[in-house]
Amino acid sequence: MTVRIPLELPAASTGHSAPYPLVKGLDYEYPIPEGVVGSAKELTDKTPKMFQPLKVGNMVLPNRVGVSPMCQYTASNNEATEYHKVHYGALSSRGPGLVMLEVNSVAPHTGVSVVDLGLWNDVQAVKLKPIVDFAHANTSKIGLQIGHGGRKAQGNPPFEYLENWNDPRAIKEEVVGPSAVPFRPKGRLPTPTPLTVEEINTIIKQFGAAAKRAVEISGFDFVEIHGAHGYLLGSFLSAHSNKRTDKYGGSFENRIRFLLEVIDEVRANVPKGFPVLLRISGSDLHDSNPDAWTTADSVKLAPIVADRGIDLIDVSAGANDSDADRPKDKFGKFLPIAAAVKKAVGDKCLVSSVGTLHDAKKVNQLLEDGVIDFAFVGSPFLINPGLVLSWAQELDVSVYQIASHWPFHAKYAEMIEYIKSTKL
Q1: Average pLDDT estimate for 77-97
Q2: Distances (CA, A) of 55 to 122, 148, 267
Q3: Is 142 helix (H, G, I), strand (E, B) or coil?
Q4: Any idea where the NADH:flavin oxidoreductase/NADH oxidase N-terminal domain is (predicted)?
Q5: 200-206: Cβ within 8 A, 24+ apart
Q6: Distances (CA, A) of 7 to 12, 40, 61, 62, 333
Q7: Residue 192 belongs to some domain of the structure
Q8: 98 in any annotated domain
């Protein structure tokens, strides 16, 4: 049976003369859509699971397909620009279940590149607020990743060259990690300086402060802790990259300690019920390496982070071991890992997957079968920001759109009859 979860429209402004409701809080006239954008106009037991609402913490999503975080490498002074407003505005106005901004670094010199977004000061948070306000005007739920690049920080953007490290603005001495283990032996990324316990404690506080800014200044609806892809938190999880002998290294319990302390700090800095997501690399994808992080490790970790207050585990894989096996680029390449994690947590926590989820009918079947609870999609949204609207058509679901997209659902006959029967 389909569970009816209420969806809310933006607050209406007052004191204007327009004959239709306008969004409150914007400094320009913007119409409120008829219904929550991307939600099914008629919700029945036969509505495809993809277009049934989903509750994540205190946040209700209109559907179960979201924009995966994708670094754009276009920040100026680590601040959002007009590009980010246009890019995320196009996405948030077309009905995805949620939009997640690219990772925002929690401290200076910790971005994946020197042109990453940052969230270590209030000015950066203020620059993000117009993006959030426009998303909310379109009824969209919007959040962002917070992270630390660790031993992969300050590299050149991949559009320039993968694993290049020659930007004159980068500072090698600021590249840190759990141990002095470079990502690729004899590669171009520098060998990181091992963090001290005192420095780890500082970074934990920086994650909490970034989350607090995201909520209190920018107004985001959720945050995701980036614990994947060989960046700082993920590199602590894996014995392949973590050779420490103190309380943050060695045993499984020690290697996950840093992540758990970050989760606690983030939770302490956001309101109760505020959604906190976690992205993990479910596997290093190198099971022949005895030190690799494996699916079994993620299955062990998942209930622990669920009990710690994570609302959704976002399962990706790889990017921590340069010798890892590259998965074939086929539909749902990380699904077996996500399915194992979902089985481990059951109803304690939501689980999503990412990675070549490019077929609407197949994704919907995964949702129907309970293999995953939510699907993150990346590059298809770059090709088609209205991907969810296209998928709704494919699944024969009529969904709400923003008012300015009225030609898609123009009621010409009804309009003409109204004109004939009504006198001004």
Answers
A1: 98
A2: 30, 28, 18
A3: strand
A4: 49-393
A5: 200/248, 200/258, 203/106, 203/107, 203/148, 203/232, 203/262, 204/258, 204/261, 204/262, 204/265, 205/265, 206/106, 206/107, 206/120, 206/148
A6: 15, 11, 8, 7, 33
A7: yes
A8: yes
Look at residue 237 and tell me if it is in a domain.
yes
The DSSP string of 146-157 is: EE--GGGTTPPP
Q: What is the CATH number of the domain that holds 301?
A: 3.20.20.70
Beta bridge partners of 193: 176
Q: Does any domain span residue 402?
A: no
Residue 230 lies in domain = 57-386
- Identify the burial level of 252 via C-beta atoms within 10 angstroms of its C-beta, where 0-12 means exposed, 13-18 middle and 19 or more buried: middle
Phi/psi for 393 (5° steps) reads -60, -40
Phi and psi dihedrals of 217, rounded to 5?
A: -105, -50
Q: Note the pLDDT tens digit of each residue in 282-303.
A: 999 999 999 999 999 999 999 9
Lowest mean pLDDT among 78-92, 111-125, 193-207, 324-338: 324-338
Indicate the length of the chain as a whole number. Answer: 424
Pairwise pLDDT comparison (114 vs 417), residue with the higher score: 114
Alpha helices (H) along 220-334: 232-237, 252-255, 257-268, 295-307
Which SS3 state, helix, strand or coil, does residue 94 take? Answer: coil
Into how many domains does the chain fold?
A: 1
Residue with tokens 């209190």: 216
